[in-house]
Design brief:
Elements: E1 3-6, H1 17-25, H2 30-42, H3 52-56, E2 63-69, E3 72-78, E4 85-86, E5 89-90, H4 92-111, H5 114-117, H6 123-136, E6 148-152, H7 159-174, E7 178-181, H8 190-201, E8 209-213, H9 215-218, E9 229-232, H10 236-246, E10 249-252, H11 257-270, E11 282-286, H12 291-305, H13 307-310, E12 314-317, H14 320-341, H15 355-358, H16 365-369, H17 379-398, H18 400-409, E13 412-416, H19 418-433, E14 448-452
Parallel strand pairs: 6-7, 6-10, 7-8, 8-9, 10-11, 11-12, 13-14
Antiparallel strand pairs: 1-3, 2-3, 4-5
Length: about 450
Amino acid sequence: MHKIQLNPVGAMSQLSQLEVNLLSESTDSDLYQLFRNCCLAVLYSGAEIDDSENIFAPHHDFAINLIGRERGVKVELVNPPAHAFVDGQLIKGVHEHIFAVLRDLLHMGAKYSAQSLRVAPDADYITHSVFDMLRHAQTFKNTAELNMVVCWGGHSIGEIEYQYTKEVGYQLGLRELNICTGCGPGAMKGPMKGATIGHAKQRYNNGRYLGLTEPGIIAAEPPNAIVNELVIMPDIEKRLEAFIRLSHAIVIFPGGAGTAEELLYLIGIMLDEQNKEQVLPIVLTGPEHSKAYFESIDQFIGETLGSEAQSLYEIVVGDAAKVAKIIKQKQSVVREYRKQTGDAFDFNWSLKIAPEFQRTFIPNHQNMAALKLHLEQPKTELAAALRQAFSGIVAGNVKSEGVALIKEQGPFQLKGEPKLMKMMDALLESFVEQQRMKLPGSRYVPCYRITQD
C-alpha cells in the first residue's frame, strides 16, 4: 500500500478548529465520496478522458484521509495514480488542485447552505454565494487590469480547431490578457497553452489560467495541467454565473451541447432589458475549417431568439490576431463603463440575472420532458428552457449521474413545438456528425430523443 501525506497550501493553510472538526466528521458522508472522486479526477490532470468510469474503475483501492492538526489539516493519499508523480514527488500543480477541491467542497458542504444561514435562496443570496466562494478561493486580485477573457468551447475538438484555440490564446497572451476556461481538455486547454507562450514573450509575470468547474463534471473533464487557479462551484448554474461575472470579454470556440448551453445562457441574460447598457465583448471564432459550425449556430440563434440576439456577438473566422485586437480595443470601453456605473473591476455586480437562469436545474427524465420548448414565449424564457435542454444532454453524455440515469431508464425525451424541435434536431445532429459529443474514437449513442407536440 502506497501512502503519501500532503501539507496544506493556499487558502487551506489556515483553518479554525471548528473547520478541521467539520472536515473530519464528513469522512463517512456523501460529501466525502464526492471529495474522493474529485481528488482522483485532479490526480488525472491533463488526461484526455471524458468518461468518469475510465478514471474510477481501475482505482477502487484509492482512498483519501484527512489528518487534523492544531493549525490545520493534512491530506493523506492512499494508492494514488503513479502518473501524478515525478521521481516520487507529487506534481506541484496537482498538489495545489487537491487543496482547491478540499477548500471548495468544505466551503460548499459545511459552511455554505441556505439552511444554515437561515436566508431565502433568492437572486441576491445566490449572487452573494458565488462572490463569496470566489473570494474564499482568492480569485479577486483587486487590480485595474480588467483583462480576464473567458474562453468557452468543446472538450472534443479536432487538431485543426485545437491549434487555432492555441493561436488565439497566444495572441491574447501577447496583449497581456489572462484566460479563464472550464479547465478541461480541448478548447479549454488550448487558449491557456497559447497564452503561456504569449505571456513569456512579453515577460508578463501575472499570467492567470483560471479554471472553473463543478463536481458533476470534474471527473469527466479533469483539470488540464496549465490551470494555476482551480475553483469548483457547487453546480452548473453557479459556475456559469461565476464565468459571466468574472469576465471582461468572452470568446467562444466550436463545441457541442455544453458550448451551446453556455452561449444560450449568455444570450438569454444579455437580452434582459435591464442589461441593455452592459459592455461585454463577445466573439465567436474558429478556423476556416469551422465556418459551417458557426453558420449553423448563428442560424439557430437567429431563428429561435431573433436578430437582436445575433447582434450581441461578432463572428470571426480564421483570424486569431483579429479576435485579440477586438478584445484589447474594447478593454478601455469596459473599464469606462465599470467606472461610470461604480461597479467592481473584478466582479460584475450590476449584471442582472433572472431567476430562471440561477435556479438549479436537475437533469432527470421528468424535468427534461417538462421543459417548455415553444417559440411563442418571451425570448429570455425560451433561452433559459433551451439552456436547460442542452444542460441535460451534457449530463447524459458525460456526468456520471446522468449517464447512469440513461442506462437505467433510456434516453431523455425532449418534446415541443414541431418547428423548434426540427431546428434542435438539426443542430444536435450536426454536433454528432462533427464528433462534438464525445472524444474522437468513441462511438456516440444519443442520450436524448426528440419528439413533437
